[in-house]
């Protein structure tokens, strides 16, 4: 999967110099670790973590940590690993709910540039399944199926001054995004975990979505493997925070 990434990462964008010329020792160090040791570590692998899933996790992680240059390197490799244009776009779209449009827009533009260079016709096939009239109900159904029956009526709950946020979570975050095609619910929860782990500072939400991952069938070992594969891109502190949140969620779930 990563055979050509070492070559790609050598390049300085908008420069005639390459990292191999300026930082050969670092290129060898990082490449050996990220593209060999991490990739082949048994504890950082899982039967469900194929190349396509690993690539989607890394794309989501790079969006979460704002790694736009590495995202540009990774996206063609992800396509070669089986990720479709629709899947890549859906990862970017869903990131808006967790990172905000201001941080996601550069990644949407970069994705379109890469697809355009590949002569992929845009826009891609539409993936929406709801209407303005049905999104709220569909969003609540998604919340219930992912988190449990206690989410029924969540949109109308909480203090009056912040109740609108709960409504938006139901109709926008889940109604607009989780109901779309292109990705399964398990994939959507997995990339959400990556968004949250990569940006840091949102451990309560990370723990909640670790629990949601467990509920939809992404077992603890898989989640640890996903986070481990993404460690070279986000560093040890956020990786360890994510694993702590996964362990907390698993303990609550009795795993």
Cα shape: globular
Q: What does the radius of gyration come to?
A: 19 Å
| Beta-strand percent range | under 5%
Structural class: mainly alpha
Description:
This protein is mostly helical. It is built from 13 helices and no strands. The radius of gyration is 19 Å and the shape is globular. It starts with a helix and ends with a helix. The model has no long low-confidence stretch (mean pLDDT 94).
Could you name the key traits of this structure?
255 residues, mainly alpha, single chain, globular, 13 helices
Tell me the layout of helices and strands.
Blueprint (H helix, E strand, L loop, with lengths): L4 H5 L9 H4 L1 H17 L10 H14 L3 H13 L4 H15 L1 H17 L17 H13 L15 H16 L6 H15 L3 H14 L3 H15 L1 H17 L3
Question: Would you kindly provide a brief summary of this structure?
Answer:
The chain has 255 residues and is an all-alpha fold.
